[in-house]
Amino acid sequence: MSSTGQPGRRVVRIGSLTVGDGPAVVFGGAQGRGPHADGLRLSLARVTAGDRPAVLAKARASWDGPLLAEPAGPGDLPAVAEHADAVVIGAEWTEDAALLRAAAGLRLPVIVRRAPGASLAAWLEAAGRCAEAGAPGVVLCEDTGQGVDLGLARAARERGELPVLAAAGDGAGLAAAAVAAGVDGIWLAEDAPAGQVAAAREAVTVVGALLRDERPATVAAARDAIDRTDAALAVILERRAALAGVVQRLKPVGGFAGRDPERERRIVAAMARRAPRLGERRLAPIMKAVIESGLHLAEELRGSPGDNGGEPAPGPETPAAARRHHD
């Protein structure tokens, strides 16, 4: 199965997946396959030599998305070439020029895992040799098995002009930090279950929408980016409403009666400095709706007269009612 790298900075095509442009991706093992995984990784080191071609063929038959295979030795390369969308190479391969050329000679994208203790220069040199040997695309992977150096991963992305993945072990604890550091994908352990893959996907969606620079070129891609931004916005709004509820309980006078117009103006002004194209005029009605929704929710949760027995919160106040609350 062939895959081709795409020209351009930090962009590699692996099967149907673009790595290095658009949202960060999530790779997991067989236990985590499902809608939250973009690609399936498979190491052949744990498989008996004679069974490896059959295991690869079975993985290919059960997974329509990108399949990333890590050979245990040169004898695995024909099966990798037949069934996989990318070849993963580890420390032994990066330190052996003949093995490296053999892997790159498959004409599949190559994912280069950093060898334990390898410097940034050595890591980038191995990636460069893969490209010189004919690999149509090269992706770096910060996964030494001895912890993850996100600073090094970020430096590799900046200096190497290649996509970079970062290992998050068998869970998603590092996923948010890795995306914030600028990596292009999360590399989960092969035995990470579906729930942990889903958690990594959530981290990629929320953090990536806030911090990752995307330049979609189609309507569909732009709408996908908007959906990710909306997902992050929903999380932030829920968090803001919860914090606003804490404030209402702590204030001497909470709820609508205790609103502080001057603070609300400062909030809008501060947001306008971060979003100058929207400006205060456009942000003011947005924040008014956000603040009032939080106040309605706080009243409902504490069972105040604003509680309406579990029905949806009332809509925006009338001008007369708003004046009464400010008086």
UniProtKB/TrEMBL annotation:
Alphabetic keyword roster: Isomerase, Transferase
Record SUPFAM superfamilies: Aldolase, Chorismate mutase II
GO molecular function: chorismate mutase activity; transferase activity
InterPro entries xref list: Aldolase_TIM, Chorismate_II_sf, Class-I_DAHP_synthase, CM_dom_sf, CM_II_prokaryot, DAHP1/KDSA
Single GO biological process annotation from the record: chorismate metabolic process
Enzyme class: isomerase
Location of the Chorismate mutase domain: 213-302
Region (Disordered): 298-327
Record carries keyword Isomerase: yes
Keyword Isomerase appears in the UniProt entry: yes
EC number(s) reported in the record: 5.4.99.5
Pfam families per record: CM_2, DAHP_synth_1
Signal peptide as annotated in the record: none
Identification of the protein by name: Chorismate mutase
